[in-house]
Amino acid sequence: MVNFEWYRSFIEVYRVGTVSGAAQVLHLTQPAVSQHIAALEAALEIPLFQRMPRRMLPTEAGKRLYTRIASAIETLESVSINTGLTNTPLLIRLGTPQEFFTEQVLKRLNAGNTLFSIQFGLTQKLIEQLLNNQLDCVIATQKIVKSELEYQLIFEENFWLVGPPEVEIPILQDVLQVDLSSLAKWLIQQPWISYSDELPIIRRFWRIVFGWRLDVNPQFVIPDLRSIRSAITHGLGYSVLPDYLCREWIAEGRLTLILQPTKAVTNQIWLAYRKSERQSQQTITLLNLLLSDRSRGDKETEK
After folding, report:
1. What average pLDDT does the segment 42-71 reach?
2. What is the pTM of this model?
3. Given its phi and psi angles, is residue 211 left (phi above 0), alpha (psi -120 to 50 degrees) or beta?
4. How far is CA 235 from its chain centroid?
């Protein structure tokens, strides 16, 4: 008789591609997963994988088996998740950039019977915690490809170049509209405020808009976008910020919009989760909250 856990191990090895990766997802030892695969192959009397040096490649029989059972396994796991005690609060452990969470995510959360544990940090570190099952989901500013993970697009931000309030640009507006090189020459003489020493956001913006690599030393390095926004308001320099952080401040005269490029400089933001948890209540709840709210926002914008 085939054990249900053998099928679960088979599904994860198929998805992840390695026994060690599947063991991490299932919270089992590597030998245990190997034994499950061997037992399943013995019971079915057919090899399901080709053992390569760094990869488990499914055989044709393995592919057919996966097609037949994957949906059933996900359904069973979903049933086991959703038939727990109805009064038990759902805990969601979410990793996220602090600024994006405060400005965009917090207002979308409808707690109800849900508990939230929030961990702030950079995407690379948060993804490591997700892989180690220390988090349920991560809001990621970049896609770090891992075979165990899936990504769902939840937001797209545009970047604008902004400066202190009431700043005067010594370039005629008609020149500025057709010749960005004049603006570039003036800007490189100004003090810059960056998120890190590498100027990742500023240099990407500069390369796309002006077509060459910016080589300046930032006057201030501040690892918090909202603090950068405040520093610009106090006249300490110039920077590139996502539109959701500076739109209202520009309208209020607290920042000056130096350049909103015709060719938008964008960045996509994703919800990352383990493939094995795509049907979990945590993942589904977060996706419903984030995507439904974005959909409503898009409709309001159209109006």
Report:
1. 91
2. 0.64
3. left
4. 32
Burial of 198 (0-12, 13-18, 19+ CB in 10 A): exposed
SS3 of residue 43 by DSSP: helix
pLDDT tens by residue, 223-233: 999 999 999 99
From the options 3.40.190.10, 3.40.50.11030, 3.30.70.1130, 1.10.10.10, give the CATH code of 4-82.
Answer: 1.10.10.10
| Structural Rg of the chain based on CA atoms | 25
Q: How confident is the model at residue 295 (pLDDT cuts 50, 70, 90)?
A: very low
Residue 144 burial (CB < 10 Å; 0-12/13-18/19+)?
A: middle
From the candidate CATH numbers 3.40.50.1820, 3.40.50.1970, 3.40.50.360, 3.40.190.290, the one assigned to the domain spanning 157-266: 3.40.190.290
Structure tokens at 19: 């026994």
Closest CA to 55 of 24, 82, 18, 90: 18
Both structure tokens of 140? 């990621």
Q: Which residues pair with 92 in a beta bridge?
A: 116
The distance in angstroms from the start CA to the end CA of the chain is: 60
- What percent of the chain has pLDDT above 90? 64
Contact between residue 190 and residue 238 where contact means Cβ atoms under 8 Å apart:
yes
Fold identical between 4-82 and 157-266?
no
